[in-house]
Design brief:
The complex is a heterodimer. Helix content of chain A is 3%, strand content 47%. By secondary structure, chain A is mainly β. In chain A, strands 2, 4, 5, 6, 9, 10 and 11 form a 7-stranded mixed β-sheet that branches. A 4-stranded antiparallel β-sheet of chain A has the order 1-3-8-7, with no helix packed on it. Chain A is globular. By secondary structure, chain B is mainly β. Chain B has no helices and 9 strands. In chain B, the strands form 2 sheets. In chain B, strands 1, 3, 4, 7, 8 and 9 form a 6-stranded mixed β-sheet that branches. Chain B has a 3-stranded antiparallel β-sheet with strand order 2-6-5, with no helix packed on it. The chains are: A mainly beta, B mainly beta.
Chain lengths: 118, 110
């Protein structure tokens, strides 16, 4: 079964840029859409954006001005950058695979905890 | 985009059935049959229970079923068991090619 693993810095200072990576263990990297989702402690899920190796990414309109994503096909790796972070960006960040039929995130990483604090 | 509307909490006795609603608009839930449901236990990532309104991934118990009417989708959990105590989230594709989640519903056993 495909393995997904997020990684990040853990702690980011306010106003700085958060950089996250998502490593995918197999070739489903190239054949599926992938998404970033975050969850502040004790709160609900928020969709950040969608990536695909052969398409244009899509982002949550509320975050679009601060989000960029990139793909490294040689490493089977997705990256997310979120600029000008504030305490409101403190959350667990997940990378997840969209299922074969194009709906539903069927494989999730364990998540990486990001805290924004000085 | 505003979150889909779910009840904050739903409770039921072991063996009973519960239904969680997920209300959106004609731009999301009502627009596509791309509604999915997730179960999340504390400290764990979400687990996909239902996709495309009513389809179950392989390995998901048949006690979970999904439906939709207009702008409202529903998840029914039959034969409630202790391990069903968790948070549940709905999500929908939208007409601007984004995804939106519901606020989440905490299910507790009486």
């Amino acid at each position: 079964q495909v393995q997904v693993q997020e990684s990040g810095p853990g702690l980011v200072k306010p106003s700085e840029t958060l950089s996250l990576t998502c490593d995918v263990s197999d070739d489903s990297f190239n054949s599926h859409y992938w998404g970033w989702i975050r969850q502040p402690a004790g709160k609900g899920l928020e969709w950040i954006g969608r990536m695909y190796t052969r398409g244009t990414p899509a982002y949550n309109p509320s975050l679009q001005s601060r989000v960029t994503t990139s793909i490294d096909t040689a490493k089977n790796q997705f990256s997310l950058k979120l600029t000008s972070v504030t305490a409101a960006d403190t959350a667990v960040y997940y990378c997840a695979r969209v299922g074969e039929d194009g709906d539903g995130f069927d494989i999730w990483g364990p998540g990486t905890v990001i805290t924004v604090s000085s | 985009q505003s979150a889909l509307t779910q009840p904050a909490s739903v409770s039921g006795s072991p063996g009973q059935s519960i239904t969680i609603s997920c209300t959106g608009t004609s731009n999301d839930v009502g627009y596509f049959n791309f509604v999915s449901w997730y179960q999340q236990h504390p400290g764990r990532p979400p687990k996909l229970l239902i996709y495309e309104v009513k389809n179950r991934p392989s390995g998901v118990s048949g006690r979970f079923s999904g439906s939709k009417s207009g702008n409202t989708a529903s998840l029914t959990v039959s034969g409630l068991q202790a391990e069903d105590e968790a948070d549940y989230y709905c999500s929908s594709y939208t007409n601007i090619a984004t995804v939106i989640f519901g606020g989440g519903t905490k299910v507790t056993l009486l």
